[in-house]
Write a structure and sequence with these properties.
By secondary structure, this protein is of the alpha+beta class. The chain is built from 11 helices and 33 strands. InterPro entries: ApnL_C, ApnL_M, ApnL_N.
Length: about 625
Amino acid sequence: MTIDAFQLYGTYLVDPPPVRLRAGKLEADLANGNLRTIRYDGTEVLRAISYLVRDRDWGTYSPAIAGLRIEQSDDRFEVTYLARCDGPDDTKLIIDVRIVGSPDRLDFEAEAIAPTGFETNRCGFCILHPIVGVAGSPATVEHVDGEIMATRFPDLIEPWQPFKDMRAITHEVMPDVQAECRMEGDTFEMEDQRNWSDASYKTYVRPLALPWPYEIAANRPVRQKTSLVIRDARGSTPPPAGMSGGVIKLELGARAGTMPDIGVIITPEEADATLSANSVLSEIAPQELLFHFDPGAGHGIDALRRFAAIAIVHRGRSMLEIALPCRSSPSSEAAEIARQMQLAKFRPDAIMISPSVDRQSTPPGSKWPDCPPLDEVYAAAHATFPGIRIGGGMLSYFTELNRKRVPDGLLDFVSHCTNPIVHAADDLSVMQTLEALPFITRSVRAIYGDKPYRIGPSTIPMRQNPYGSRTMDNPAGARIPMANRDPRHNGRFAEAFALGYAIRVLDADLEFLTLSALSGPFGLIAGPAEPTEQGGRRPLFNTVYTLSRLAGASWQACVSSSPSEVLSFVARDAAGARLHVVNLTGEERSVDCGACRPADSGKELLLAPFAAVALQLAD
């Protein structure tokens, strides 16, 4: 069966394949002028070295590249090009780039010059270290003053920068192989990008404590250089291990638990569409509806009446997500919402309440905005909504929860969301965010213990931007960070991503997981003008439907020999045991699941791109 790009990605635009650069045992992929998946002897050393330019809303420019020249030999490669960023008011930034690789060294140099002056939040190198196999491991950091410090990469996720004033960082890639990454031309610091579900530690230029946005002066060159130096003390070594592409093996693991209940979010703007699609909602049968309510956005009694109508038809549990304005006392604002709820005859089973201002991020060095004490907010909620479970946390992302750790003494549960396109939106980066989810949930458990825990709504498109004034419009259906619409939400990519997400958070013992709306840009059903495979149902429908049916079932871990490509788990309920397998890549993958004892199929599967299958297991 032929599957075209639109079915997979929701667009005919695809990420162009990278150019593989090689110098002896050193390899890197060149994509859009930057380096990805930098490997030595088959092992990933750095996830990326990129030269990035951010606008005042932390959006990332996509520079036009001209004069690209690539030269390769057995033990050397060289890349040169010019990149141009076009800013507002006809401003321009020109970047002259040179990349040189040898068997034990990689140099990436850039000189930026703005003929007109150029406003930016950040301009310069960004270096990503991987997290799998690196988290918690030793590192040596050299500071700009020459001090050398023996330390470790954070294991639990750090809310603030683990390392500042950096000149170089060294870590062990494999036994007897060290990698030093040296940064010149400015002062660098590292942040733990797992906060945003990025699968990396990010070393970046220009400390966050300095003002932003700032101006690059006209005709004043800004020069930077990043060097990766490999020190291999092993002597002769076997040939580099090839990248995955063989058979991926699955084996039953020891970990086990209970599948979470599944929620669907409904906004006032999508309430009427949800009522019209009630038959689809009934078919999915989510365990809870999550209703979003924001008085600051004009939501009032009409929205609550629509919510009440949906809740009656749904006949399941419901939660009201309140962005409390906090323009007056929390008790008076909660009382007004309670009055409107009573008039609308809407009584949810749970309320998640958070000050509206806490949806915006407070980066390191920034002043915290005015906000009532959270204990006062939660006490007001308990007093105003008696008999209803009260939850807190963040309506935005784990980043904000980690930086502003809410007091949980008055809370019945904690909650947050994640989003995979905060910093990068290419296909590889989005799927790699799944690697960070177990670190996020383990960090939440380290803070809040066994407090009931919910995640969502977590979708590929971004519903709000805590790091700028707005989410990014995306009328062309491109892959852009912080976009409020993403084409992959319409394709099988989203179906695979959501199932991978659910598998990666199984260990968290979640109470609820919400991965979509019913309608709209985050929904399971498409608008009338959007072509889909199943009569208006996006492929994501399949994942949410499956997870809703599995709610409350027992699960058992299944270990994949290549979890970045294929994930799986076993679910057991009254119908027996079934092995659920998902291909996270855009290519076919061969999977050996014989160790899991499938009942009615061969032990080897050929999984289509982004395909998810369920196999009955033998008793």
